[in-house]
Automatic annotation (TrEMBL):
Induces cardiac myocyte hypertrophy in vitro. Binds to and activates the ILST/gp130 receptor. PANTHER family: CARDIOTROPHIN-1, PTHR21353. It is found in: Secreted. GO terms for biological process: cell surface receptor signaling pathway; nervous system development. GO terms for molecular function: cytokine activity. It comes from the Eukaryota. InterPro entries: 4_helix_cytokine-like_core, PRF/CT. Its main location: secreted. It comes from Phodopus roborovskii. This is Cardiotrophin-1. The keyword Secreted applies. The gene is Ctf1. Belongs to the IL-6 superfamily. Keywords: Cytokine, Secreted. GO terms for cellular component: extracellular space.
């Protein structure tokens, strides 16, 4: 176990170290899921923008920077952290995203009730993110570096509560855009971090 834990901090330190077959399979499976979700995230962001109307999607449109409770973009220092810590942060972010995606879906059901494909995509994204987060936690536990931290879901959904004013609708759309962007950033970050654990290189 100590050897495998060492490889988590620096998987390139000793190429002779090999994972147990079941763990290797789980790492590959989790990495493949993360890689698939990076593609889905790009599609979701494009689909979301298409349904928001002007000025979303217009050239030069720069949405205001809004903050979310419990989740932010990966920090610039993320890549410099030990791999175990990066994966813990990935797992925590993936744990927060489903509630946010569910909140976006509920808001879009009010704003775009005739867009079932977008609503399904948001629902699928929340479900797939839960699956990826659980898989990352399983990998961490198997490597003796279990994820930590409280579940931030209840607080995270608060900023997306319904608002009837025009400014409230615009803010809800911008927050939804931000959530879809964070979804893409974190699954991409997770895919990159997991790629360093894939035995023999990226599959």
């Amino acid at each position: 176990m100590s050897q495998r834990e060492g490889s988590l901090e620096d998987p390139q330190a000793d190429s002779s170290i090999s994972f147990l077959p079941h763990l290797e399979a789980k790492i590959r499976q989790t990495h493949n899921l993360a890689r698939l979700l990076t593609k889905y995230a790009e599609q979701l962001l494009e689909e979301y923008v298409q349904h928001q109307g002007d000025p979303f999607g217009l050239p030069g449109f720069s949405p205001p920077r809004l903050s979310l409770v419990g989740l932010s973009s990966p920090s610039p220092s993320h890549a410099g952290l030990p791999l175990s810590e990066r994966l813990r942060l990935d797992a925590a972010a993936l744990g927060a995203l489903p509630a946010l995606l569910d909140a976006v879906r509920r808001r879009q059901a009010e704003l775009n009730p005739r867009s079932p494909r977008l609503l399904r995509s948001l629902e699928d994204a929340a479900r797939q993110t839960r699956a990826l987060g659980a898989a990352v936690e399983t990998v961490l536990a198997a490597l003796g570096a279990a994820a930590r931290g409280p579940d931030p879901e209840p607080a995270a959904s608060a900023p997306l509560s319904p608002a009837s004013s025009a400014s409230g609708v615009f803010s809800a759309k911008v927050l939804g855009l931000h959530v879809c962007g964070l979804y893409g950033e974190w699954v991409n970050c997770t895919e990159g971090d997991l790629s360093q654990l894939v035995p023999g290189g990226v599959a």
